[in-house]
Amino acid sequence: MPDKKKDTKALRLRNSILIFVVVVVMLVLGYGTLYSTGVTEGEYLAGEHYRVIDSAPARRPGEALTVDEYFSYGCVHCKNFDPLIEEWRESLPEGVTFSRSPIAFSPTWTLLAQTYFTLEYLDILEQNHTRFFNAIHDRGIQFLSAEQVADFVDGRGASREEFLQAFNSPEVRRALREADAAQRRIQINSVPTLVVADKYVINMDNGRKVALEIANQLIAEELNGSGN
């Protein structure tokens, strides 16, 4: 006669194992779906993924929300980030503006920062922005003087003389001072760095794509009025 008690125990054990396997598979599939879809809501936290600026000014009703990239033409990481951020900025929602602010960590970078503001002042950034990245990091050119920069820009939207005149203009020098003051206030210590709404400094250590996802989350929270 077969032992019914043993058969019942074996059946229960087998069913328990099957249930356990099914649960594990469901958990694995659920995690895979979450990971592949890139769900980020509530994932990025202050103090871990971004820093909230102390005493940040409140954004007035109707005022555009800004995203600022602190960068330098002398930074190879900024060069590598540039194509990605150019694509990303095209998808920004209405009411959000993007701008760059060059960093002056050294005399050479100060020259490049003043160069950026000169290009912006003359409205010739589009013709020259990528050229400076490529010249420095692909061709090994070192820009050591305003005259050398002017020679490089000559014929690319402005003459050598027009560039030098704008380079030394009060407007460009003022822009350089204001950018330096903002850098110190926000405590920018490395580039590239993204700042959202003049309020959040994004931790770039998690990678460039993640930094843009964090920026998207902060933009959405600010636009929805749920920002910190």
Give your account of this protein's structure.
- The radius of gyration is 26 Å and the shape is elongated.
- Helix content is 55%, strand content 11%.
- A hairpin with a 3-residue loop joins β4 and β5.
- The chain is α+β, with helices and mostly antiparallel strands and 228 residues long.
- About 9% of the residues have low confidence.
Mean model confidence by pLDDT: 87
As a percent range, the share of helical residues equals 40-55%
Low-confidence stretches: 21-41
How large is the radius of gyration? 26 Å
- What's the β-strand tally? 5
N- and C-termini, Cα separation: 73 Å
Spatial sequence of strands, sheet with the most strands: 1-5-4-2-3
Number of helices: 8
Structure summary:
The chain has helices at 4-37, 76-89, 107-121, 125-137, 146-153, 160-167, 170-186, 208-223; strands spanning 50-52, 65-71, 96-102, 193-196, 200-202. It has 228 residues and is an alpha+beta fold.
Q: Any descriptors?
A:
five-stranded mixed beta sheet; 228 residues; alpha+beta; 5 strands
Could you outline the blueprint of secondary structure elements for this entry?
Layout: H1 4-37, E1 50-52, E2 65-71, H2 76-89, E3 96-102, H3 107-121, H4 125-137, H5 146-153, H6 160-167, H7 170-186, E4 193-196, E5 200-202, H8 208-223
Parallel strand pairs: 2-3
Antiparallel strand pairs: 1-5, 2-4, 4-5
Helix pairs in contact: 3-7, 5-6
